[in-house]
Amino acid sequence: MKLRPLHDRVVIRRSEEEKKTAGGIVLPGSAAEKANSGEILAVGPGKALESGEVRALSVKVGDKVVFGPYSGSNTVKIDGEDLLVMSENEILAVIEG
């Protein structure tokens, strides 16, 4: 990974967009909703507390996570791939199993 996030930020690769509805209707690319889940590719060192200590993040590289529909508004293009950079507090849950 050529991108190293700072502080409590993480870099996420968004999961593939859903191309079909639950009823089986195929959606064109512009109508498909963006996925609200992805895989963490890189994590920052942690959040700096007022005491000067650094609190490590609760997530790690490789975790599959869920985030809100308007989270991760910071996108970057690395090696032709769009990646999200967001703060750890924008992540709603880790998908286990």
UniProtKB/TrEMBL annotation:
This is Co-chaperonin GroES. Heptamer of 7 subunits arranged in a ring. Interacts with the chaperonin GroEL. Belongs to the GroES chaperonin family. GO terms for molecular function: ATP binding; metal ion binding; protein folding chaperone; protein-folding chaperone binding; unfolded protein binding. HAMAP family: CH10. Together with the chaperonin GroEL, plays an essential role in assisting protein folding. The GroEL-GroES system forms a nano-cage that allows encapsulation of the non-native substrate proteins and provides a physical environment optimized to promote and accelerate protein folding. GroES binds to the apical surface of the GroEL ring, thereby capping the opening of the GroEL channel. InterPro entries: Chaperonin_GroES, Chaperonin_GroES_sf, Chaprnonin_Cpn10_CS, GroES-like_sf. Keywords: Chaperone, Cytoplasm. Its main location: cytoplasm. It comes from Pseudomonas fluorescens. It is found in: Cytoplasm. Signal peptide: none annotated. One of its GO terms (cellular component) is cytoplasm.
